[in-house]
Amino acid sequence: MTILHKRKYEFLLIALLLHLFIAVLLYDLDFYANIIWPANMFILGICSIGIFSGKSTLHLIVKNILLALVIFLPISIIFFKPTELLMQIINITHIAFYSFIFIEVLKYLLKPSYINSDIVSASACGYLLLIEIGIFSMQAIYYATQNPFKGIDTTSFTTIYLDIVYFCSITVTSIGFGDITPANHFAKLATSILGIAGQFYSVVLVGIMISKYTSNVPSKKE
User: Smaller CB count within 10 Å for the chain: N or C?
Assistant: First the structure.
């Protein structure tokens, strides 16, 4: 617990990177969906413990409920057919879970007037959390509307998810290769919001970093 609290943002950053991109090392997508994804969520839950240390009882209760849902709902796919209703419940719980952590990270970034390794790690965590929120928002749109995206591999729910991970990553980073594109107004507007949010986060983050740095630079008089 001491280590998790001391290095909480480093652990959270590693867990987010594993959750988003570990599939690049795997060929068996069924193994990824049934074993790796639930394991990643468990690791992410453990690594997020330090973020909520010292928080109110209500914070801890909400975090624990959301954590239990994001761990056990993906496991239910092993035993039940991944219906649209089940996938939407998974999407909503994941959006709530990542948004909950994202808010705590933003609070931390705005609080201190200095830059250290925790600030750098927390800023990277915020960027990845924004991508995570975008992923499950886009996936919710995918299962709620007809043909919202062109270019997505619809072989299984796993390939859909991985393609949306890719799409949201290149949208937030403003790369936009164009191989996957939004095809209805829900997806188009959501993509626009995600792109704006990514740029806004980057601009605000740079401003925060500069202000924290300059506040610690001694003036000529000093």
Answer: C
